[in-house]
Amino acid sequence: MTLEIRPARPEEFPDVVLPIMHYFGRNVVPQDFTDRFRPIIPPDRIHAAFEDGQAVGSGGVFPFETGIPGGLIRAAGVTLVGVLPTHRRRGILRQLMRAQIDDIHERGEPMAYLWASEDALYGRFGYGIASFSGNVEIPRDRAAFHDDQPVAGRIRYLEKEEALEVFSGIQRAAAARHPGMFVRPAEWWRHRRLADPEWGREGGGEMVRALLELDGRPAAYALYRLHFSAERGIPNGFTSVIEAIGDSPEATREIWRYLLDIDWMARVRAHLLPLDHELFLLLREPRRLSFEHRDGLWVRLVDVEAALKARTYKSGEPVVIEVADEFCAWNAGQYRVGPDGAERTDAEPELAMPVESLGSAYLGGFRFGDLARAGRVEELADGALDRADTLFRADRYPWCPEIF
């Protein structure tokens, strides 16, 4: 049978995502899925494998503007990747990844990144683990802050459309400061982040959209829901924090003070927090967070030169990095990186690594020294690891508060 790999046509959505839906136990794409995804993913950004006119595998891309050290970059948010179990071990995933990365390269998006459903899957296509994230759960009676500063600001609840306008400004500013966080367009807010379907509440109440104002200006927001329950008249439910973002340390502190102090809740839960989240040092008893970590973002530098030129570097001595990339041969070569930027060079390499290791360090989540100790980077000149770590240091740990 003949296999065809090509971008989807508009009329073929949502049939082209049936392969990934199979793994969620669905043989038909639900209408609510179509309603949520059609406005935010262009059909031609979904590459599908067709056999006799039927989609047997697919992989999609959200066109993002994503935070990196120093600003924002065009990036491909890879999603909806799957091949039917009937067609495994035939090289279909590799063909899909080939078509997808070639398309990303042609569109001038220097970086692709994703959340991996299987953490052993994407390294063979040049993706490197770029961050960890984690979930927390803390008893409210052990959630006191380390100091006794007075409460600041005012909290008010917003309707969906008002929240979209106000929250998007705060979130865009946060994305420019947090490597890995993408800027949400209005359609994403409307159809995905602020969507509140009954099936997504997991037994909790309606989504609450809370805005913190400091000195009369919007400064932070929180999306959360309350899961009320009681035993013998004693509340033992929890507050589920979907997302809480502030535009300053004070705003972050105050929005979390509010969330940790909601009455009638015994615990507070939050997901996908970065390793440098403010809560670790805000709390008097950080051990009570019961932090449970997992892998986070995986980064693939599709155009190494463009990606290196796009980010900023700290002051320090330059270093020459040799990159090997079997899947994207155009990336192979040496790059001089210094405080003034990056460029291709013919100079002798001082560090050597596969492209996935450079992806691990690109957002600042991992140091080259750590990667070298794990056998993922080779130091060819004395002091090169220290120089690279100094240059690539980021002000914040990579963070994406939403799985895409």
Q: What low-confidence regions span 5 or more consecutive residues with pLDDT below 50? A: none
> How far from one another are the termini?
33 Å
Fold-level CATH name of the largest domain:
Aminopeptidase
Structural class: alpha+beta
| Fraction of helical residues | 10-25%
Account of the 3D structure:
The structure is a single chain. The chain is an alpha+beta fold and 404 residues long. It folds into three domains: 3-109, Aminopeptidase, CATH 3.40.630.30; 134-294, Aminopeptidase (3-Layer(aba) Sandwich), CATH 3.40.630; 303-392, Nonspecific Lipid-transfer Protein, Chain A (2-Layer Sandwich), CATH 3.30.1050. The protein is built from eleven helices and 21 strands. It has helices spanning 18-22, 31-37, 92-106, 160-177, 186-193, 249-259, 279-282, 304-310, 355-362, 368-373, 384-392; strands at residues 3-7, 46-51, 54-68, 71-83, 111-115, 128-129, 132-139, 154-157, 208-214, 217-227, 230-231, 234-235, 237-246, 265-274, 292-295, 297-301, 319-324, 333-338, 341-345, 351-354, 378-379. The strands form four sheets. The chain has a seven-stranded mixed β-sheet, sandwiched between helices. Strand 18 and strand 19 (341-345) form a beta hairpin. The model has no long low-confidence stretch (mean pLDDT 96).
